[in-house]
Amino acid sequence: MERWDLIRDLVLRTGITVMLLTGWHARGASVPATLTAAHSTDSQRAILEFNEENDYFAGADRHYTQGFRIAYLSADNCLPGPSRGWIKLFPSFGFRLDICRTGLELGQSLYTPKDISAEEPIPNDHPYAGWLYGGIVLQRRGVTRSLHIPVLETMRIQVGIVGSGAMAEQVQDIVHIVARVSEPQGWHNQLHTEPGLAAKYQRAWRWSPRGPRKWNADFIPHAGASLGNVDTSLRAGATVRVGRYLPDDFGVQTIDSLGFTEGGQSSFADTHTWGFYGFIGTEGKAVAWTTFLDGNLFESNPSVDKKPLVAEFKSGLVLVFSRTELAVVYVVRSEEFYGQESGDAFGSVFLKLKF
Fold first, then answer.
1. Does domain 2-354 match CATH 2.40.128.140?
2. Residue 38 has what DSSP assignment?
């Protein structure tokens, strides 16, 4: 156990050190002049994001039960020195590259079976599992070469720990004590400790029937993939937004999304002090492997027979101000493993600070 505690501390300290030494902030060095921004007259500044997801908001306490993430994204074309070289390694197929941004994330996710009072492993129910991770993000924005449709490309690498080293048991015990509800009794059956990796890629397109106006709507399809022992899957979906002064971004993302929330304070936001929008979205996922259902990759432990196809539906309301955004999201997910009696639901509260 001490070995994994040391690894966990090293991951966290390394992430903080990288953030401090390489300058992940709005005043970072600009990218070379070859990356000229088509949106330079409305460039976006840095953001800090907080996202809390919990099935308590949906009146449940099972399976994906809680998630928290804090994330940072740099201002447009303001990149730390080490990243300017490796950004050139990724060609921009199918769109003209205008904007690059980099970011960091730190998060934790918790999973439990339906019956948290049982002390023994429960066959055919979701295993106990925790996932503590840090990640780096590269976002690139531009337009398609022919129709000039806005495009957002997101690449993420998450590295962390699955198992007791993720401290999921301690976090859930504290939450249940504060909420004065019974504490889970089966965390000693959780997945064994092992390192976790997920490399994620997504591309999204945004189409609007009208240019920037007071009342507007847009349609945002997306597709992507994840590879790693934490999650290996293919995904595709779409979101529709309708509202007052829609922000120049690609909408709110959940913690499990391949995409990464972006946007930021801009001249458009300065002109219009507030706005709001509602949205609905759906995503289909073809799952090849997920450690939270298939169990540990390197040793045998509790697992379930997962379903290869999963659907997710979400809806929400977002309040948009010049320096902040606040969103509430409700997500419904179809059955993820055989023997699951019904789908799951959870709620999300999202806060974005714009610098």
1. yes
2. T
Q: Are the C-beta atoms of 183 and 175 separated by less than 8 Å?
A: no
Amino acid (1-letter code) at residue 323: R
The beta strands (E) that lie in the chain are given as 47-54, 63-73, 95-112, 129-144, 150-162, 194-205, 215-227, 231-244, 274-290, 309-321, 324-333, 344-354
**CB 77, CB 45: distance < 8 Å:** no
Per DSSP, 258 falls in state S
Question: CA-to-CA distance for 133 and 42, rounded, in angstroms?
Answer: 33
Q: What SS3 state is found at 179?
A: helix
| 89-134 tens-digit pLDDT | 778 889 999 999 999 999 999 999 999 989 888 888 999 999 999 9
**Buried-exposed string 70-107: b where 16+ CB fall within 10 A, e elsewhere:** ebbbbbbbbbbeebbeebeeeeeeebebbbbbbbbbbb
Domain positions in the chain: 2-354
Alpha carbon distance, N-terminus to C-terminus of the chain:
40
Report, in angstroms and rounded to the nearest whole number, the Rg of the chain calculated over CA atoms.
20
Q: Which whole-number Å values give the CA distances from 181 to 52, 172, 346, in the listed order?
A: 19, 11, 18
Q: Are strands 47-54 and 63-73 parallel, antiparallel or unpaired?
A: antiparallel
Residue-wise pLDDT tens digits, 244-265: 999 989 999 999 999 998 887 7
**Max CA-CA distance within the chain?**
61
What's the CA gap between 315 and 143, in Å, rounded?
Answer: 27
